[in-house]
Automatic annotation (TrEMBL):
Keywords: Hydrolase. It comes from the Eukaryota. This is AB hydrolase-1 domain-containing protein. InterPro entries: AB_hydrolase_1, AB_hydrolase_fold, Epox_hydrolase-like. It comes from Rotaria sordida. Belongs to the AB hydrolase superfamily. Epoxide hydrolase family. Residues 29-304 form the AB hydrolase-1 domain. GO terms for molecular function: epoxide hydrolase activity. The keyword Hydrolase applies.
């Protein structure tokens, strides 16, 4: 589907690019779709089409670092509290009060903070591929050591490459190789050539290619490629910001309990965001439903029907 994009200055000097389809009546809520790395609002194309046809409102911004949204090179500007403030300003601009917040991958970070900072603006929360983890300080080396012990490989080893100063240039210079690996037809490929420390730069420097997943059409591929070539460093700043714990001062006193209903979709073939990592989330969520799909990481693109229908059935259940 073709998206009609709009822009809004959420605060002085900071603009957000977004797609918005208004709900067709007051009884239908609006979804706030937050994409992950290194996607754009385009990754929600199947959901926007489906839910807008059902009469729901759909709001999908490009987050900081993406498209025509404000994309600073300074990692310290990528604070989650600031992003939530930007999203609230966008909702106010569109006269939207409460929304169903939906996040995928990195988009789950601002989605979760949206709920924690503004529970009164939230109807419910949908997390895709990445489940709920309470705000906490991160020690990347400790994370890698623990995952090696538990999983047998470092599922977040690629973070080491993403925080390096030359990562953006290497990705831009080998963009087809990068997309192939992210969207490989072989779900086990990432476990070997993406996740462990040192493997992704090896893949890229050798210009390796593989067969892409069939759900990514030529149009999807062209859109994704153009997005990456607009500049990788702002997108990688999400990782740098997390590694350097720039959110901790804002978040250390946040109540981590989520009081609204939460739906979590997880892919059993996702070797990076492994389902077991989020086993502890139910202690923070009173009303949690978990749906496992036999798929990889890009669930809303690989299994759009299951995601769309799963969300709709759940909305009807929670009323």
């Amino acid at each position: 589907m073709m998206f009609k994009t709009q822009n809004y200055e959420v605060t002085k000097g900071i603009n957000y690019e977004y797609v918005y389809v208004q709900a067709n009546n007051d009884l239908k809520p609006t979804f706030l779709f937050l994409h992950g790395f290194p996607s754009t609002f385009y990754s929600w194309r199947h959901q926007i089409k489906y839910f807008s046809e059902q009469g729901y409102g759909c709001l999908a911004p490009n987050l900081m670092g993406y498209g025509k949204t404000y994309s600073p090179l300074n990692k310290d500007e990528y604070k989650l509290k600031s992003m939530v403030t930007h999203l609230i300003a966008l909702l106010n601009h569109l006269h939207l009060n409460k929304v169903i917040v939906v996040g995928h991958d990195w988009g789950t970070a601002p989605a979760i903070r949206f709920v924690l900072y503004n529970p009164e603006r939230t109807l419910s929360l949908v997390l895709i591929s990445v489940g709920y983890r309470p705000p906490a300080k991160m020690d990347l080396d400790q994370v890698l050591e623990t995952s090696k012990k538990i999983l047998g490989y470092e599922n977040f080893g690629y973070w080491k490459f993403f925080e390096s100063d030359d990562a953006a240039t290497i990705i831009e210079n080998n963009v087809d190789s990068f997309i192939d690996l992210l969207f490989s037809n072989n779900s086990g490929e990432k476990k070997i050539n993406f996740a462990p420390v040192g493997k992704i730069q090896e893949w890229l420097m050798n210009g390796q290619r593989t067969i892409r997943a069939s759900y990514m059409t030529e149009d999807d591929y062209a859109n994704f490629r153009e997005n990456l070539l607009e500049g990788m460093q702002p997108k990688l700043n999400w990782y740098k910001a997390a590694i350097e714990n720039i959110n901790w001062d804002d978040e250390k006193n946040l109540d981590p309990i989520i009081k609204c209903p939460v739906l979590f979709f997880t892919g059993t073939k996702d070797s990076v965001c492994v389902t077991a990592l989020f086993a502890g989330q139910k202690q923070y969520i009173a009303d949690l439903e978990v749906v496992e799909l036999e798929a990889g990481h890009w669930l809303m693109e690989e299994k759009p029907n299951e995601i769309n229908q799963g969300i709709e059935h759940w909305i009807k259940r929670i009323g």
